[in-house]
Amino acid sequence: MSRIPLPYNPKVLDLFRNPKNLGKMEDATVIAVAGNPLCGDMITFYLKISNQDVIEKASFESYGCAANIATSSIVTEMIKGMKLEDAWKISWKSVTEAVGGLPSIKFHCGILAVGALKRAIRKYYKNKDVSPEWLEEELSFEEKQALEEEELAKMISKRLKTEEEK
Amino acid sequence: MVENVKELLKAHEGLKREVYLDIENSSIVPKEVIDAMLPYYYKRAYGNPTLTHKPGWEAFETIMESKQKIAKFLGCKTLEEVNFTPGETEANNLALMGTAFAMKDKGKKIVISEIEPISVLHVTEMLQKYGFNTTKIPVDSEGFTNLEKLSEAVDKETILVSLSAVNSEIGTVQPVKEALNIVKDKNSETLFHSDASDTYGKTAFNLQDLTVDLATVSSYKILGPRGIGALYVKEGVNVEKILEGQIGTQKLWPGVENTPLIVGFAKASELAFRNFEKNVNCMLRLRDKLIDGIIESISDVRLNGPKGDKRAPDNVNISFLRCEGEALTIELSLNGVYVSSGSACTRRILQPSHVLVAIGRKYDEAHGSILMKVTRYHTDEDINYVLEVIPNAVKRIRGITGSTGVE
Predict the structure, then answer these.
(1) Residues of B carrying an active site annotation
(2) Where are the beta strands (DSSP E) in A65-148?
(3) Quick one: fold of A10-165?
(4) What is the average per-residue pLDDT within B123-144?
(5) Would you kindly state where each structural domain of chain A is located, as residue ranges?
(6) Which chain A residues contact residue B405 at CB under 8 A?
(7) What is the pLDDT of residues B224-279, one digit of tens each?
(8) Which residues in chain A touch residue B350, judged by CB atoms under 8 angstroms apart?
(9) Which ipTM value was assigned to this complex?
(10) How far is residue B155 from each of residues A97, B150, B198, B377, measured CA to CA in Å?
(11) In this structure, what is the dihedral angle of CA atoms B332, B346, A42, A138, given to the nearest 10 degrees?
């Protein structure tokens, strides 16, 4: 293992300095979160979805590093005007590409951003009590990874609590 | 990858001021120190100090004179007590492994505090593979070692206790003298090591008064060049060397002595101790100005480590809640303020500093921690600038966090 000075590319830096679609959305149709502050990154997505299942607006808030902020921001850009069925096809790899690449240690940021997006889509259909054919019941890779990270956070906080009791 | 870094650097163009506060991880070397070192690269004493020619004898003379200066500041009895190493990491490795190997027939137990530096902590973990065991003594919410627990832990099996004089992350000035008495009362044969890298040149520290068996000092922590430090080994204490190679003027560390770095270390020591009180008072004033300024202007912050006399004069460590540390260090850098964060992204999850966890900080509190150290070269204008930049940076990063993670 070695440490490098996280050579973020100009695109990531630009999104970090001037994030697009930042902030809470008051009239969001669906809100989804992924991650946990204990793990150092957490994302909230706000989506405004039309009756035709098209994403009209998307915004985000994020507690995390520059890569976390940049990937969240780019996802909201990518999905604007997209049908949910197409948005579902977005993978963490395409998000990583869209920000011009990430240091491998930061891949999980893109994964978490897509995890939050897929959760939002799933939640939207669950709220509507509709299950489109293309929406697989099995969790996507990104959703699973987000869940795993949250489980880790739970373990950490449990461990910290036991230590406090000692 | 380098291309990206070039672009990152370009993003810093046009800064109106730059303030470097990351002395924990590397330092600016004052020109006086560089000037003192330069002749030893090409003018004189460039020889190997063990060899029989003029440049070699010059090197020997130079090294011994530098050693004499450092030995005097440390309060050593003999010059042989000072062993130059390439830095704090190596000196701590030598102290821990060297005593473990030398004492292995007397016992297998090593006692350290929970907040020792990584170069102590990880060595004890490595030594476990060779049959040694470690007891870690807890610290309180300000980082002070629990002396009762220390007393309980030291037994006839205990070969070594290692306790830093000052914690480099949160600045806690440990009660080393009391700890030393407790340890020697319980077992007079137990050796006592103290990493004094954050004490030497910054607080009153003298081995005539604090009679530890081994002590680590580092050059860059007192604004000397990187790549040089020393382990003090008290006369009569048996430590085994941990590296093999061509033996030079020192018994415990093989290889060719680096004369210019040794000269630089001695010069940096002289500068730190010349006007010692004035230097310390300058750091104290700037430290408190920085701490108070941040606490007064920003809500939801936590000072990590103690306040006042029991805190190292240069150390500022503050957690900014709802503000992720790496994002904050980048934002500050883009504004010319250079600091480090207590958490490092080494895997999928951010690893909080073990020191902050040991004093009871929650992970998200640790993730938002920033470490800064002031020096005698910083000015009021520098600190004013930092106090102007930090609130805006925190505000911007908190703006991105929004309500995420707020319960």
Answers:
(1) 345
(2) none
(3) Sufe protein. Chain: A (3.90.1010)
(4) 97
(5) 10-165
(6) 36-37, 42, 63
(7) 999 999 999 999 999 999 999 998 999 999 999 999 999 999 999 999 999 999 99
(8) 39-41, 65
(9) 0.92
(10) 59, 10, 29, 46
(11) 150
